[in-house]
């Protein structure tokens, strides 16, 4: 075998890449799931519901200041609008 091929990790010539996973490996990522409450997320749901039940704004403010958006960063805008 050529020393150049062995240094690159086997029988692959330099400059070629190998796939780390199979093509059929469809694993859902953390943010591929839809948000709760019809895709709005809890922040926008509390924002819109707060016009009818203002206590929902206080609930969303508590969630915002307790860093609830660390679980899913997509929730941050809605919680900030409610706060």
Automatic annotation (TrEMBL):
Protein's name in the database: Uncharacterized protein
Transmembrane domains' residue ranges: 37-66
Keywords: Membrane, Transmembrane, Transmembrane helix
Keyword presence, Transmembrane: yes
